[in-house]
Amino acid sequence: MIRPATTDDVPDILRLVRDLAEYERALHEVKATEEQLRERLFGDEPKVFANVAEHDGRVVGFALWFLTFSTWNGTHGIYLEDLYVEPDVRGRGYGRLLLTELARIADERGYERVEWSVLNWNEPAIGFYEALGARPQDEWTVYRLTGEALAHCAALGVRP
């Protein structure tokens, strides 16, 4: 079963975030807390959303996403930040259902795209995405400001 996440799902979502980070060899980078996720997902003005997959009454997967906007298309889109299904229930269609639910939401709301990033070495995920019809956007390179570089860039805009 795929459904929108509730506040009761926050501990499971964080557990799955940590499982995903461990798979991606980056568990040490996870700083999120249950309180942060609860506020971001269910606060007064949520900017991020989640759907969960249940198997035998247990949360076994999730998709965490937020809205983007295309100035060229003049429409919103969905950015899939994380998609993860526990290894012991993979192959049962939960990942596909989570992703097709996002496609359904986008289509229903008139959004023109669902997009995400995938690690270059994650061949199982790449194969899964391509089997659904997704195609890599090779002409684009992702850039990120973080840590000291973010602080330095922010300081460049400070006026005396």
UniProtKB/TrEMBL annotation:
What molecular function terms (GO) are annotated for this protein? acyltransferase activity
Q: Which residues form the N-acetyltransferase domain?
A: 1-160
EC number(s)?
2.3.-.-
Write out the coiled-coil annotation as residue ranges.
Answer: 13-40
User: Which InterPro entries does the entry link to?
Assistant: AcTrfase_GNAT_prd, Acyl_CoA_acyltransferase, Diverse_Substrate_AcTransf, GNAT_dom
Look up keyword Transcription regulation and say if it applies.
no
Q: Which UniProt keywords apply?
A: Acyltransferase, Coiled coil, Transferase
**PANTHER family of this UniProt entry?**
DIAMINE N-ACETYLTRANSFERASE, GH14572P-RELATED
Q: What is this protein called?
A: GNAT family N-acetyltransferase
What organism is listed for this UniProt entry?
Answer: Actinomadura sediminis
